[in-house]
Amino acid sequence: MTKTLRTVKNGDKEKLKAIRFVQDSIPLEEFSEDGIFLIQSGKKYHNKYSAVYQLKDISYLSLSDEMQRQIFLAWSAVLNVLDPGATSKISVIKHKIGTATLEKFKTHNDNPQYQELQKEYNKIIVQKALQGNGMIQEVYLTVSVNKKDRDAARAFFLRTTSTLQTQLLKLGSGCTQLTGKERLELLHDIYCGDKENEAEFDLKQALKTGSSAKNYIAPESMEFETDYFKMGSMYGRALVMHSYPTYLKDSTVSDICEINRRLIWSMDIIPVPTDEAVNEAEKRATSVEANISKWFQKQYNNKNYAMEPPYDLKQQREQAQEYLTDLTERDQHLMYAVITLVHFADSKQQLDDDTDSIMATARTARCKFNVLRWQQLDGLNTALPLGVRRVEDIMTLTTEGVAGFMPFKSMEMQEENGFCYGQNQISKNLIMIDPKSKQSDNCVVLGIPGSGKSMFMKWVILNKILATANDQHEIIIIDPEREYAPLVKALGGSVVYFSTNSKTHINAMDVSSGYNASDNPITTKAEFMLSLCEHLMYPSVLGPKQKSLIDRCTELVLRDYVKNGCTGTAPTLMDFYEAMKQQPEQEAKDIALSIEIYAKGSLSTFAKQTNIDISNRIICFDIHELGDSLMSIGMLVLFDHIQNRMIQNRAKGTTTSIINDEFYLMFQRQYTSEFFYKMWKRGRKYGADYCGITQNVEDLLRSPDGRSIVSTSELIIMLNQAPIDRDQLADLLDISENQQEYITNAKPGSGLLKAGGVMIPFENDIPRDSKIYQLLTTKPGEAIYDSGE
């Protein structure tokens, strides 16, 4: 036994005391707001304090073999920085989704117009959340240390937090230290079985009055039998791992915890200082060599001159040498470990069946669990995220051996105030994302025809409308395929139809009174006019002379209007055309002739005064009937119009979401691409977010601006992809081969979601018998048809 293990065992010795009340079974002496709890007081070994960290899960199981190897090494590095003067406990805790959590997933909009859809939406959300028995799996790390007093413990945990955060970031994870209130809520959830409708515990008040937190977290009753226990109406059983194989599958922990029951899998880790571990290894190697020498001497005395020792001694020598090499050359640390598992059930029969199932799963990984007989309370307290250890089935492992029990499974994304982006394909948990929590809140949706792009986007639109108030969020849609009108109308929104002969017009020369207030509005408008003229004059290319003329005429037309505060009658494209005609240069005559059809001819839809005044929070611009000659021009003019509205909304504190289907069209011309790219980047400045949707991924990535938008977007939705598009995206976004499977022959509405640096396989099935499905689907024969004006 090493000095470290002897010290830890002495420090873990429990004071014998009579258990008269349920609270006496809980190893907790003092609690505090900062989450540092006193779990055992003493004199010789000071006082034992503990803190709990929630670890951010990572999508380990969906990564490539190489990425898994890198994560394994990074996780090993985390284990190596665990302080040898402390003990650590890694816990995988699986619990049910409570009613309070479900309420957070629901929307609560008071608008009477939305109530029918909201009721159905919330029903779908609850069904999704409870899929797979509504279980949530979380990973925690409990660190406990013996210190003289709370100040010394607080200083220790401050250093520990910093070290853990630094190391966990390297493997794409992270950690958050639980506050006192959060720790008590976690314990209450375990002890009381997700009970709802109980009075919320007031930690500050309890500290003032001196009342015990145990009264809040304790169950109604606790009964411990030989091989199981009962907490309130729940049955539970504590198991301990007795043996494990030399080579362990890294999915072992996930496989064992796959059962749809509440459970706690915990691994207590006692790190040993390197010098002490090396000394122990050298003693072991010396002992093996001594045994071999004795064997040779015995053979010599018997006149048996064999040259090789027996197989078992050779194996011991190899293992001892390999063990010493691990410690001295391969950065392996010696660690003692105890693995316990506590699972819960609603009946004794269910408990017995679950125990058999867990043990059978463990046997497939060549691991053996034993039921802790007459030690059920000790097993429970050891498994709990408190920081005590009451079970002595200690295993000796190296860093790699501990890391082999990989606790990570799949990355979850359930951000506060998030919108629902479907379900995690692996865990079936809801994906809730708040775009504003990202560095960029813009979004890109990519997929082949029929992959479910517009249906997915309409689901997000519905969520945003139901989850926010009228003055909080506006949504503007550019719809070239006439797919969004049924949903927009059902939500009370306005659909504006454009065509070459429609009576609806937007003036391409409009300037808002607050137009890009930080810049010169004429300069910004000139940038737009360059983009517009580039389209109007295509296939002619704008040279330096043409650019100067466009800039000159833009200023001539807008100068007085802007000077008067953008009041009165705004200039139109017709005024711009007339100004261009009056310029002496021949190039001006050429420009005027090129844009004449758009200024006063048959394609003059955007050369007339704006005659729409929409105050609705949901606006859909239907450009389906503009035709090929005006489609991209229409998008460009609409984006300029939208920019004006964005500025107005910013002044009101209203978020503007802009959805642009087939936005790859914006990257087919140089100046248009530059104009759109600037708008995309400056959206956040105006409290706006853009979502670009396209099936033409190859065309989009061919443009440097389009490629930059995809590579820098924090939120990317990838549905089923064509092989060439999939390869390009994999190269651009570093998507592993395993992850590419989720965008290969994927069913409609499912794929891969990139949120920041995280990749999550997702799905988003909507019940076909719901009204929401009818409003969202574009499938022929099921979609609601909109005939236009």
From TrEMBL:
Keyword Repressor attributed: no
GO molecular function, one term: ATP binding
Disulfide bond in keyword set: no
Protein name: ATP-binding protein
Any Pfam family hit: AAA_10
Classification lineage: Bacteria, Bacillati, Bacillota, Clostridia, Eubacteriales
Lineage: superkingdom: Bacteria
Record key words, sorted: ATP-binding, Nucleotide-binding
